[in-house]
Amino acid sequence: MNNASSDVSRLSQIWRGTLAISPLSLAVIPWGLLAGSYAIDIGLTPLEAQALSAILFAGAAQLVATGMFDAQVGLWTMLLTTLFITSRHFLYSMSMREKLSPLPFKWRLGLGFLLTDELFAVCGHQTQQVFNRWYALGAGFSFYLVWNIASFIGIVAGKQIPNLNQWGLEFAVAATFIAIVIPTIKTWSVLTSVVVALVGSVLLSYWKIEGSLIIASLLAMVSGYLVESNAKDKGSSHQNSEEEA
Q1: Within the chain, what is the greatest distance between any pair of CA atoms?
Q2: Burial 88-108, CB ≥16 within 10 A → b, else e
Q3: Where are the transmembrane segments (predicted)?
């Protein structure tokens, strides 16, 4: 009876995780279609294109790597660029370390592979007490399946429909990140970071400054840090004033 109850609880958590990430899973479908069709357009075989989605499993890095492969960029340049683009996952893993460290190695390895922007958006805010491995598995694995199915459809469509990558599907990239970012805007520091990143990236791109996205990202992080530090200083000063009174 206990085993049956435990299985039901696990399935319930998996289903809850799947439902929680489902809006982001739907949003990533055009992105997956684009990744699959683009891989075919540059000359990869269907097996190679599908393996790219199944093994790399990093949307932005995957599209960039595919473009660099098409441009015949050197391997080390491609690897370093991919490493830089995906470096934010290091921050994700550090943030979730307390939640994952008590788990067995196979769980840490599996959830580490499934850790994406979307999974972090769903599970990153959870406390260690609330975090559930089966919930995270349901969210991460269902997203992985949707990504690979969408990539497969893109691969098939890419062979049947030429220039599918010119249909404007790349907007799904922006739409997905907008869906991730908006719910996290709960403090002035986060709002400041978002606004600075938005305005900075647009202006720097308009002025055709190289590395505009990187510069805008750095400006956003510094701005958010300064706002948060200022808020903490004011809070400390106010507390000290009350104690003196």
Answers
A1: 76
A2: ebeebeeebeebbeeeeeeeb
A3: 20-40, 75-91, 134-158, 213-231
Q: What is the pTM (predicted TM-score) of this model?
A: 0.76
Mark whether 165 and 209 lie in a shared domain: no
**Count of the separate structural domains present in the chain:** 2
- Regarding whether 199 and 150 lie in a shared domain, the answer is no
Q: Say yes or no to pLDDT of 245 above 60.
A: no
Cβ atoms of 124 and 146 within 8 Å: the answer is no
Task: Please give the residue range of the domain that contains residue 207.
Answer: 185-245
Q: Examine the domain organization and report whether 91 and 193 are in the same domain.
A: no
Q: What is the pLDDT of residues 150-176, one digit of tens each?
A: 999 989 887 776 666 666 666 766 777
Verify that 135 and 200 share a domain, yes or no: no
- pLDDT tens-digit map of 117-127: 889 888 988 88
Domain boundary among 172, 200, 235: 172
